Amino acid sequence: MVQLTMAKAINEGLRRAMADDDRVLVMGEDIGKLGGVFRITDGLQSEFGAQRVVDTPLAEAGIMGTAVGLAFRGYRPVVEIQFDGFVYPAFDQIVCQVAKLHYRTRGNVTMPITIRIPWAGGVGAAEHHSESPEAYFVHTSGLRVVAVSNPQDAYVMLRQAIASNDPVVYFEPKRLYHSKGEVDLDLHLADAPPMGLARVARPGTDVTLLTYGAQVATAMDAATAAEDDGVSIEVIDLRSISPVDYRTVTASVRKTGRVVVTHEAAREAGVGAELIASVTERCFNYLEAAPQRVTGHDIPYPPAKLEKHHLPDLDRILDAVDRVMDRPNSLTGVREQ
Amino acid sequence: MTHTLTPTADLGTDIEDVARLLTPDGERIADPELDRWIADVDAAALRSLYRDMVLLRRIDVEGVALQRQGQLGLWPPCQGQEATQIGTARALRADDFAFPSYRETGVVYARGGKPSDFVLAWRGEEHSTYDPYELNTATQQIIIGAQSLHAVGYAMGIQRDGTDQVSVAYFGDGASSQGDVNEAMVFASSFGAPVVFVCTNNQWAISEPVALQAKAPIAGRAPGFGIPSMRVDGNDVLACLAAMRWALDHARSGKGPAFIEAVTYRMGPHTTSDDPTRYRDKDEVEKWRRRDPISRVEALLRVRGEFDDAFVASVGTDADALAASVREAAMAAQTRSPITVFDNVYAEPHSGIDEQREWFGAYLDGFASTDPSAPAPEV
User: Fold this and answer.
1) Taking the CB of residue B192, how many other CB atoms lie within 10 A of it?
2) Would the CB atoms of B352 and A242 count as touching at under 8 Å?
């Protein structure tokens, strides 16, 4: 075990994946000499050369489309999209090509592409640098979508994503890049929990709190605060948001009978909507209260000085917990429309 | 001396301003730049090119007929473009890799496609049939221009593997407006990737004339990206073959990408769902009919005494047999079972898909248990 920041854990994941398999290559903007704008690829080009750590022209569709061609040729490209809000030019290639080629070719062609996206807000960035576009990809069949919340998962799940023969969109929360944690770099991938498995981050008995990415830390804080109030929250870090590990989720909900989902992304047709619909279908008779969502507002990402009012914080989560617990101190009450 | 770079728009989209070895009348004209690339094309080779074009046209005629008879859902005719498709594809080595679009029936044919490969996708049985690695040809692409980037990425892989293969991107004049095609040229040029771009300028992108996509020759764009290009008569199979050999040699010898604009004409509709009489003149079509790619080779073969009855009969027999097997492939198609819609969504087990497959399987089984003699449900 070593103490690593998430940034360093991802860096190490890339390094070891490249060392283990010479078909793995990394491509993106500014990832070579600069080591990426977040330094995630720091040192990789000097170690593996410019043929394997490829600085690309500034064109995301071009990066994604050439990654498809490399995958056709048997390579395993790891694509870095510089910021969440820059992925949209590549959207057509991701949705129509990356996600569908295996299906289109009846399994003859695989697309083992990992799409790394520095993701979400809370870092005081300019417009287009704090977005949470995960629902677009969750909605797209053919992709797997994961979101990491700690250095250990960041390391292992990146290795698993690269080893997967399916395309994986890998969301890495920018605001956790410098948070540290224990990482077992020698953990064999076969011994690690599968990428699609959710993790009970904190056991509890009254409320199931579903989340992923940087919001896991906020959820944990909320659970600690609620405990002082006599409410026991079970926090589930979904890790994979497509597919979702409903076995773990439903086991928790059948125990607690109450569900709150929290994510930074906007509410409408978001991951939370899907989670609650699925949980309701599967656990309707176990539910004690209407499931609640605690999300970003349905607005474009606001200016940095206002982002704290957009991001679902501890208090907003506790407010929803009060609602599912039917406690009178809820600020907003249960909305009926 | 001026600092202003001006477009050479005078070249325009004049269809006569092309490299050519064979006039519409079938006269072989000398071209010092192109002749050397086809010095080996003897009578047998010319007959073989002719045969392939005739067979391609026959596949195309059969495709339209099958669609009209309700056997296919759709067909994108390529009549008029036989020289472009056969001339360029026949220049490829077996281990080169082609990325065709949906209209490149002739490329798939030249790469070894089977009769079923031409019709099962348009019948709606499959999205594609052949294994791309068997034909070294990607699935025909429907998203306009998207495959140009795949070809460049594939070429980047060739560079890393250190082989002398070449990757080929086929796309049309409409696609030349797409970002993907322009990004493909940037990437190809910057990385010196061994890729050849073949832009089939068939004058029409459904109803939009090429003038809407390009005010100057499309081939003229490539040098702006640092890519040498050639504009050829796309109805001249010898010019297409020669230009493609030049381009492939350029890419194969490590000089980076090359670009060909083949100026031709889509004689038919965009697809069988289209009505071109709404947007183009009959006169224009008739003008192009006089530039037919097949008849000019026939004229040359006649002048050379190579177009004898036995040859005509043998091509006719081959065409009849191919048409019959294309028809047979369509008529004999068996739609696969409903549950297989879940196959190959992912390469590895996926809990969400597995669950839906299980549910749908049970749902389908429910029909069976109601009436065991009933046919499989339509779903």
Assistant:
1) 16
2) yes
